[in-house]
Hints:
By secondary structure, the chain is an alpha/beta fold. It has twelve helices and twelve strands. The protein has two domains: 23-69, no CATH class; 78-346, Aldolase class I (TIM Barrel), CATH 3.20.20.70. Strands 1-2-3-4-7-8-9-10-11-12 form a ten-stranded mixed β-sheet. A hairpin with a 5-residue loop joins β2 (90-95) and β3. α10 runs parallel beside α11 (311-323). Bound molecules: iron/sulfur cluster. Its cofactor is [4Fe-4S] cluster. The active site is at residues 103, 342. This is Probable dual-specificity RNA methyltransferase RlmN.
Amino acid sequence: MAIELKTKPKSPQGQNVLLGKSLQELTEWVQEQGQPAYRGKQLYQWLYEKGARSLSDISVFPKSWREEVKDYPIGRSQIHHRSIAPDKTRKYLLRLQDGLIIETVGIPTEKRLTVCVSSQVGCPMDCDFCATGKGGFTRNLAPHEIVDQVLTVQEDFQRRVSHVVFMGMGEPLLNLKAVVSAVNILNQDVGIGMRSLTISTVGLPAKIEQLARHQLQVTFAVSLHAPNQALREQLIPSAKHYPLKNLLEDCHKYVEMTKRRVTFEYILLAGVNDLPEQAQELAVQIRGFQSHVNLIPYNPISEADYKRPNSQRINAFLNILQQENIAVSVRYSRGLETDAACGQLRAAKV
Ligand code: SF4
Protein backbone atom coordinates (compact mmCIF):
# COMPACT_ATOMS: atom_id res chain seq x y z
CA MET A 1 0.00 0.00 0.00
CA ALA A 2 1.40 3.41 -0.94
CA ILE A 3 1.73 5.58 2.14
CA GLU A 4 1.98 9.34 1.96
CA LEU A 5 5.22 10.59 3.47
CA LYS A 6 4.91 13.31 6.05
CA THR A 7 7.84 15.24 4.53
CA LYS A 8 7.84 15.41 0.75
CA PRO A 9 11.14 14.97 -1.12
CA LYS A 10 12.32 18.01 -3.10
CA SER A 11 14.07 18.18 -6.45
CA PRO A 12 17.54 16.54 -6.82
CA GLN A 13 19.28 19.83 -6.08
CA GLY A 14 16.98 20.55 -3.14
CA GLN A 15 18.38 19.85 0.25
CA ASN A 16 15.56 17.64 1.39
CA VAL A 17 17.37 14.35 0.95
CA LEU A 18 18.66 12.60 4.03
CA LEU A 19 22.37 12.56 3.20
CA GLY A 20 23.95 15.76 4.40
CA LYS A 21 21.66 16.15 7.40
CA SER A 22 23.14 16.32 10.89
CA LEU A 23 22.30 13.89 13.70
CA GLN A 24 19.87 16.43 15.11
CA GLU A 25 18.15 16.98 11.76
CA LEU A 26 17.84 13.24 11.19
CA THR A 27 16.41 12.81 14.66
CA GLU A 28 13.83 15.48 13.93
CA TRP A 29 13.01 13.79 10.64
CA VAL A 30 12.40 10.34 12.18
CA GLN A 31 10.22 11.96 14.81
CA GLU A 32 8.21 13.73 12.11
CA GLN A 33 7.65 10.28 10.65
CA GLY A 34 6.24 9.11 14.00
CA GLN A 35 9.32 7.16 15.08
CA PRO A 36 11.20 7.37 18.40
CA ALA A 37 14.16 9.75 18.60
CA TYR A 38 16.79 6.96 18.91
CA ARG A 39 16.05 5.92 15.33
CA GLY A 40 17.76 9.20 14.33
CA LYS A 41 21.07 7.91 15.67
CA GLN A 42 20.57 4.61 13.86
CA LEU A 43 19.81 6.42 10.64
CA TYR A 44 22.89 8.63 11.09
CA GLN A 45 25.15 5.61 11.56
CA TRP A 46 23.71 3.77 8.58
CA LEU A 47 24.04 6.82 6.33
CA TYR A 48 27.57 7.89 7.22
CA GLU A 49 29.27 4.73 8.54
CA LYS A 50 27.58 1.93 6.66
CA GLY A 51 26.81 3.93 3.52
CA ALA A 52 23.14 2.89 3.26
CA ARG A 53 21.73 3.49 -0.22
CA SER A 54 18.07 3.06 0.66
CA LEU A 55 16.04 3.18 3.85
CA SER A 56 14.97 -0.36 3.10
CA ASP A 57 18.63 -1.43 3.65
CA ILE A 58 18.49 -0.39 7.30
CA SER A 59 17.82 -3.72 8.93
CA VAL A 60 17.52 -2.28 12.45
CA PHE A 61 14.36 -0.40 11.41
CA PRO A 62 11.03 -2.20 11.83
CA LYS A 63 10.07 -3.96 8.63
CA SER A 64 6.71 -2.23 8.35
CA TRP A 65 8.29 1.25 8.58
CA ARG A 66 11.06 0.33 6.13
CA GLU A 67 8.33 -0.59 3.67
CA GLU A 68 6.63 2.78 4.23
CA VAL A 69 9.71 4.90 3.65
CA LYS A 70 11.66 2.77 1.20
CA ASP A 71 11.25 5.30 -1.64
CA TYR A 72 12.26 8.35 0.37
CA PRO A 73 15.36 9.81 -1.33
CA ILE A 74 18.57 9.33 0.60
CA GLY A 75 20.59 11.28 -1.98
CA ARG A 76 22.98 8.64 -3.29
CA SER A 77 24.18 8.46 -6.90
CA GLN A 78 24.55 5.33 -9.02
CA ILE A 79 27.86 4.14 -10.46
CA HIS A 80 27.37 4.57 -14.20
CA HIS A 81 30.86 3.41 -15.16
CA ARG A 82 34.07 2.45 -13.38
CA SER A 83 37.53 1.95 -14.80
CA ILE A 84 40.61 0.72 -12.96
CA ALA A 85 44.15 1.75 -13.95
CA PRO A 86 47.13 -0.60 -13.58
CA ASP A 87 48.24 1.48 -10.57
CA LYS A 88 44.85 0.64 -8.94
CA THR A 89 43.46 4.17 -9.29
CA ARG A 90 39.73 3.92 -9.95
CA LYS A 91 37.79 6.46 -11.95
CA TYR A 92 34.03 6.58 -11.59
CA LEU A 93 31.33 8.20 -13.62
CA LEU A 94 28.44 8.73 -11.24
CA ARG A 95 24.86 9.29 -12.31
CA LEU A 96 23.12 11.88 -10.15
CA GLN A 97 19.42 11.80 -9.32
CA ASP A 98 18.62 14.14 -12.23
CA GLY A 99 20.57 11.90 -14.63
CA LEU A 100 23.63 14.15 -14.99
CA ILE A 101 27.04 12.49 -14.87
CA ILE A 102 30.01 13.60 -12.80
CA GLU A 103 33.37 12.03 -12.25
CA THR A 104 35.21 11.00 -9.14
CA VAL A 105 38.56 9.30 -8.69
CA GLY A 106 39.75 7.00 -5.90
CA ILE A 107 43.51 6.95 -5.47
CA PRO A 108 44.85 4.24 -3.15
CA THR A 109 48.31 3.97 -1.66
CA GLU A 110 49.41 1.65 1.12
CA LYS A 111 48.56 4.18 3.81
CA ARG A 112 45.97 6.42 2.19
CA LEU A 113 42.82 6.35 0.19
CA THR A 114 42.33 9.74 -1.44
CA VAL A 115 39.17 10.78 -3.26
CA CYS A 116 39.29 13.49 -5.88
CA VAL A 117 35.79 14.96 -5.85
CA SER A 118 33.90 17.15 -8.29
CA SER A 119 32.18 20.29 -7.00
CA GLN A 120 30.25 21.18 -10.17
CA VAL A 121 28.82 19.39 -13.19
CA GLY A 122 31.29 20.66 -15.78
CA CYS A 123 33.17 23.90 -15.19
CA PRO A 124 32.80 27.45 -16.53
CA MET A 125 36.47 28.40 -16.07
CA ASP A 126 37.64 27.08 -19.46
CA CYS A 127 41.29 26.47 -18.55
CA ASP A 128 43.14 25.78 -21.77
CA PHE A 129 44.76 22.52 -20.69
CA CYS A 130 41.66 20.94 -19.11
CA ALA A 131 39.17 18.51 -20.62
CA THR A 132 36.43 19.46 -18.14
CA GLY A 133 36.75 23.12 -19.07
CA LYS A 134 36.27 22.21 -22.74
CA GLY A 135 32.92 20.58 -21.95
CA GLY A 136 31.22 23.68 -20.47
CA PHE A 137 29.22 24.08 -17.29
CA THR A 138 25.83 22.65 -16.28
CA ARG A 139 25.20 23.25 -12.57
CA ASN A 140 26.62 23.35 -9.07
CA LEU A 141 26.59 20.23 -6.91
CA ALA A 142 24.67 20.16 -3.65
CA PRO A 143 26.61 19.25 -0.47
CA HIS A 144 25.16 15.73 -0.35
CA GLU A 145 26.27 15.11 -3.95
CA ILE A 146 29.85 15.88 -2.91
CA VAL A 147 29.67 13.71 0.21
CA ASP A 148 28.12 10.87 -1.82
CA GLN A 149 31.25 10.70 -3.98
CA VAL A 150 33.37 9.98 -0.93
CA LEU A 151 30.95 7.37 0.42
CA THR A 152 30.82 5.69 -3.00
CA VAL A 153 34.60 5.34 -3.20
CA GLN A 154 34.73 4.15 0.41
CA GLU A 155 32.13 1.49 -0.35
CA ASP A 156 33.79 0.38 -3.58
CA PHE A 157 37.27 0.03 -2.02
CA GLN A 158 35.82 -1.44 1.19
CA ARG A 159 38.26 0.80 2.99
CA ARG A 160 38.07 4.09 4.89
CA VAL A 161 38.77 7.22 2.88
CA SER A 162 41.59 9.15 4.53
CA HIS A 163 41.91 12.23 2.27
CA VAL A 164 39.67 14.26 -0.02
CA VAL A 165 40.84 16.75 -2.64
CA PHE A 166 38.47 19.15 -4.40
CA MET A 167 40.30 18.86 -7.70
CA GLY A 168 37.73 17.12 -9.88
CA MET A 169 35.23 18.76 -12.19
CA GLY A 170 34.47 22.34 -11.29
CA GLU A 171 35.89 25.39 -9.54
CA PRO A 172 35.13 24.90 -5.82
CA LEU A 173 35.10 28.62 -4.98
CA LEU A 174 32.24 29.15 -7.46
CA ASN A 175 30.20 26.80 -5.30
CA LEU A 176 31.64 27.92 -1.99
CA LYS A 177 28.57 27.52 0.22
CA ALA A 178 28.02 23.89 -0.80
CA VAL A 179 31.75 23.11 -0.63
CA VAL A 180 32.05 24.52 2.91
CA SER A 181 28.98 22.57 3.93
CA ALA A 182 30.38 19.35 2.39
CA VAL A 183 33.73 19.92 4.11
CA ASN A 184 31.97 20.20 7.47
CA ILE A 185 29.93 17.05 6.84
CA LEU A 186 33.00 15.11 5.71
CA ASN A 187 34.80 16.21 8.85
CA GLN A 188 32.05 15.93 11.46
CA ASP A 189 29.87 13.13 10.10
CA VAL A 190 32.14 11.02 7.89
CA GLY A 191 35.12 11.51 10.22
CA ILE A 192 37.86 12.77 7.88
CA GLY A 193 40.37 15.15 9.49
CA MET A 194 40.14 18.79 8.37
CA ARG A 195 43.81 18.82 7.42
CA SER A 196 43.22 15.84 5.17
CA LEU A 197 40.75 17.86 3.09
CA THR A 198 42.14 20.03 0.29
CA ILE A 199 40.26 22.83 -1.47
CA SER A 200 41.89 23.77 -4.75
CA THR A 201 41.15 26.85 -6.85
CA VAL A 202 42.41 28.67 -9.91
CA GLY A 203 41.56 31.85 -8.00
CA LEU A 204 38.58 34.22 -8.15
CA PRO A 205 38.43 37.82 -6.93
CA ALA A 206 37.10 38.16 -3.35
CA LYS A 207 36.50 34.44 -3.00
CA ILE A 208 39.79 33.55 -1.29
CA GLU A 209 39.02 36.00 1.49
CA GLN A 210 35.50 34.59 1.77
CA LEU A 211 36.95 31.12 2.18
CA ALA A 212 39.48 32.37 4.75
CA ARG A 213 36.64 33.83 6.83
CA HIS A 214 35.27 30.31 7.37
CA GLN A 215 38.51 29.52 9.24
CA LEU A 216 38.56 25.92 8.06
CA GLN A 217 41.74 24.09 8.93
CA VAL A 218 41.79 22.55 5.44
CA THR A 219 44.72 22.48 3.05
CA PHE A 220 44.32 25.32 0.55
CA ALA A 221 45.79 24.95 -2.92
CA VAL A 222 45.99 27.61 -5.63
CA SER A 223 46.63 26.66 -9.25
CA LEU A 224 49.26 29.13 -10.48
CA HIS A 225 50.56 27.32 -13.56
CA ALA A 226 52.46 30.41 -14.75
CA PRO A 227 55.07 32.77 -13.30
CA ASN A 228 53.59 35.91 -14.91
CA GLN A 229 50.27 37.47 -15.81
CA ALA A 230 50.58 37.18 -19.61
CA LEU A 231 51.16 33.43 -19.59
CA ARG A 232 48.60 32.86 -16.86
CA GLU A 233 45.93 34.58 -18.95
CA GLN A 234 46.81 32.33 -21.85
CA LEU A 235 46.39 29.18 -19.77
CA ILE A 236 43.54 30.32 -17.52
CA PRO A 237 41.26 32.78 -19.37
CA SER A 238 39.54 33.88 -16.14
CA ALA A 239 42.90 35.26 -14.95
CA LYS A 240 42.24 38.30 -17.18
CA HIS A 241 39.89 39.52 -14.47
CA TYR A 242 42.22 38.66 -11.60
CA PRO A 243 45.82 39.83 -12.03
CA LEU A 244 48.51 37.58 -10.58
CA LYS A 245 49.58 40.41 -8.30
CA ASN A 246 46.10 40.57 -6.73
CA LEU A 247 45.88 36.79 -6.49
CA LEU A 248 49.18 36.65 -4.58
CA GLU A 249 48.09 39.50 -2.30
CA ASP A 250 44.91 37.57 -1.50
CA CYS A 251 47.00 34.46 -0.80
CA HIS A 252 49.07 36.52 1.65
CA LYS A 253 45.85 37.63 3.33
CA TYR A 254 44.71 34.02 3.49
CA VAL A 255 47.91 33.04 5.30
CA GLU A 256 47.49 35.96 7.72
CA MET A 257 43.84 35.21 8.44
CA THR A 258 44.09 31.43 8.80
CA LYS A 259 47.71 30.98 9.92
CA ARG A 260 47.84 28.18 7.35
CA ARG A 261 50.26 28.00 4.46
CA VAL A 262 49.17 27.98 0.81
CA THR A 263 50.04 25.21 -1.63
CA PHE A 264 50.81 26.44 -5.14
CA GLU A 265 50.02 23.98 -7.92
CA TYR A 266 52.06 24.32 -11.09
CA ILE A 267 51.29 22.01 -14.01
CA LEU A 268 54.48 21.67 -16.08
CA LEU A 269 53.76 22.03 -19.80
CA ALA A 270 56.69 21.31 -22.11
CA GLY A 271 58.06 24.44 -23.78
CA VAL A 272 55.26 26.60 -22.33
CA ASN A 273 55.97 27.18 -18.64
CA ASP A 274 58.89 24.84 -17.86
CA LEU A 275 61.88 26.97 -18.92
CA PRO A 276 64.70 27.70 -16.43
CA GLU A 277 64.03 31.43 -16.60
CA GLN A 278 60.38 30.77 -15.77
CA ALA A 279 61.47 28.82 -12.68
CA GLN A 280 63.53 31.86 -11.65
CA GLU A 281 60.58 34.16 -12.27
CA LEU A 282 58.30 31.94 -10.21
CA ALA A 283 60.82 31.93 -7.36
CA VAL A 284 60.83 35.74 -7.36
CA GLN A 285 57.01 35.88 -7.30
CA ILE A 286 56.63 33.64 -4.26
CA ARG A 287 59.84 34.32 -2.35
CA GLY A 288 59.25 34.69 1.39
CA PHE A 289 55.77 33.20 1.09
CA GLN A 290 54.53 30.66 3.61
CA SER A 291 53.87 28.11 0.89
CA HIS A 292 54.71 24.83 -0.76
CA VAL A 293 54.93 24.34 -4.52
CA ASN A 294 53.67 21.16 -6.17
CA LEU A 295 55.06 20.66 -9.66
CA ILE A 296 52.73 18.44 -11.66
CA PRO A 297 54.05 17.08 -14.97
CA TYR A 298 51.16 17.40 -17.41
CA ASN A 299 49.10 14.45 -18.63
CA PRO A 300 48.22 15.03 -22.27
CA ILE A 301 44.55 15.14 -23.31
CA SER A 302 43.40 14.82 -26.89
CA GLU A 303 41.57 18.18 -26.84
CA ALA A 304 44.73 20.22 -26.14
CA ASP A 305 48.13 20.47 -27.81
CA TYR A 306 50.26 20.58 -24.66
CA LYS A 307 52.94 18.03 -23.90
CA ARG A 308 54.55 16.67 -20.79
CA PRO A 309 58.17 17.78 -20.23
CA ASN A 310 60.87 15.09 -20.04
CA SER A 311 62.39 14.23 -16.67
CA GLN A 312 65.52 16.34 -17.32
CA ARG A 313 63.39 19.46 -17.74
CA ILE A 314 61.29 18.61 -14.70
CA ASN A 315 64.38 18.13 -12.54
CA ALA A 316 66.00 21.32 -13.81
CA PHE A 317 62.88 23.32 -12.85
CA LEU A 318 62.77 21.62 -9.46
CA ASN A 319 66.47 22.29 -8.79
CA ILE A 320 66.17 26.00 -9.54
CA LEU A 321 63.31 26.40 -7.07
CA GLN A 322 65.20 24.41 -4.44
CA GLN A 323 68.28 26.57 -4.90
CA GLU A 324 66.04 29.58 -4.32
CA ASN A 325 64.91 28.02 -1.01
CA ILE A 326 61.38 27.42 -2.19
CA ALA A 327 59.65 24.43 -0.54
CA VAL A 328 58.79 22.30 -3.57
CA SER A 329 58.05 18.74 -4.63
CA VAL A 330 57.06 16.94 -7.82
CA ARG A 331 53.75 15.12 -7.81
CA TYR A 332 53.59 12.45 -10.44
CA SER A 333 50.19 11.61 -11.82
CA ARG A 334 48.14 8.58 -11.03
CA GLY A 335 45.64 6.76 -13.14
CA LEU A 336 46.69 8.25 -16.46
CA GLU A 337 45.23 5.24 -18.22
CA THR A 338 41.81 5.78 -16.64
CA ASP A 339 41.46 8.84 -18.89
CA ALA A 340 40.06 11.01 -16.13
CA ALA A 341 38.79 14.19 -17.73
CA CYS A 342 40.15 17.06 -15.66
CA GLY A 343 43.73 18.22 -15.88
CA GLN A 344 43.82 18.89 -12.18
CA LEU A 345 42.06 15.71 -11.32
CA ARG A 346 44.45 13.51 -13.23
CA ALA A 347 47.31 14.98 -11.32
CA ALA A 348 45.80 14.19 -8.00
CA LYS A 349 48.38 11.99 -6.40
CA VAL A 350 48.47 13.29 -2.87
S1 SF4 B 1 41.30 23.02 -14.43
FE1 SF4 B 1 39.69 23.08 -12.86
S2 SF4 B 1 39.02 25.23 -12.90
FE2 SF4 B 1 40.11 24.90 -14.82
S3 SF4 B 1 38.51 24.31 -16.31
FE3 SF4 B 1 39.36 22.42 -15.39
S4 SF4 B 1 37.97 21.93 -13.71
FE4 SF4 B 1 37.65 24.09 -14.23
